[in-house]
Amino acid sequence: MKGKLIILFGIDGSGKTTILNMLKSIELKNTVCTSCLTNAIFEEELYRAERKLNFSRTDVFSHEFKHVLHIGSVIYNMYNTVLPLLDSGKNVILDRYTICIKLFTDLFLGPSCNCLSKALECLPTPDVGIYFDINIDNAIHRIEERCTRTGTLPHYSESRESLIRKKSGYEAMIPNENYSIFKIDANQSIDKVYTSVIRVLKDIYS
Fold first, then answer.
1. Residue 30 burial (10 A CB sphere; 0-12, 13-18, 19+)
2. Which of 105, 98, 99, 109 lies closest to 73, judged by CA?
3. Fewer Cβ within 10 Å of end Cβ, the chain: N or C?
4. Residue 181 DSSP class
5. 71-93: per-residue pLDDT in tens?
6. CA-CA distance, 157 to 132, in Å (whole number)?
7. Beta-carbon contacts of residue 78 (< 8 Å; ≥ 6 apart)
8. pLDDT tens-digit readout, 35-50
9. HEC states along 101-167?
């Protein structure tokens, strides 16, 4: 890969997606900001089925089924969108990546599903990770604000207990990842978090 693969990760409410959108708006030089969950695989087919058969996937499909689609989307989008960008020399900043999926699998799916994460081994290792470190109370406050703003309910994995488990999981995994990881204080205002991320990116690009 000629370009650098940079991933943003952290527990829900840490500001990853907000920061990614802010980075998109400034058009960083030679950099594409995206998510492997954009244009999820089979998404259009599922929407058509929901409309035609009058059902909701949240009521019908198991967490395991949705997780398989999630993994498929990451692999599909990496090979069809992200890798061509990296091979052309573009830098790519991703919101969530393999470390997030592995953690979710370990925490929320049965042991028999751990083999699903093996499929991710075909994907390239990031060059750099940026970990959004936030305390649980601040994360919950941001999730509540998001739910009020969007009129949606929190995901089942966004409970206090789940966030505690995720934070502990990330902190246990980080030392074993074989790429550089920068930790930023995501308890700050979003503007200050953004400034911290820009500072890290300047160090990476220099």
1. exposed
2. 98
3. C
4. E
5. 888 898 999 999 999 999 999 99
6. 17
7. 36, 123, 124
8. 887 777 777 788 788 8
9. HHHHHHHHCCHHHHHHHHHHHHCCCCCEEEEEECCHHHHHHHHHHHHHHHCCCCCHHHCHHHHHHHH
Q: How far apart are CA 199 and CA 195, in angstroms?
A: 6
Would you give the end-to-end CA distance of the chain in angstroms?
18
* Residue 99: closest CA among 202, 176, 196: 176
Residues 6+ apart with CB under 8 A from 164: 136
CA-wise closest residue to 41 among 4, 81, 11, 90: 81
Provide the residue count of the chain: 206
Q: Find out whether 196 and 183 touch, Cβ atoms under 8 Å.
A: no
User: How is residue 19 annotated by DSSP?
Assistant: H
* Token pair in block for residue 202: 């300047």
The token pair at 104 is: 């979710």
Question: 123 near 179, Cβ under 8 Å?
Answer: no
Residue with token string 């060059």: 127
Q: Hey, what are 15's tokens?
A: 């500001």
Q: What is the pLDDT of residue 62?
A: 79
**Residues 72/41, Cβ–Cβ less than 8 Å:** yes
Token pair listed for 183: 């930790």
Q: State the residue for tokens 């750099």.
A: 128
CA 169 to chain CA centroid, Å, is 15
Q: Which two tokens stand for residue 116?
A: 């699903």
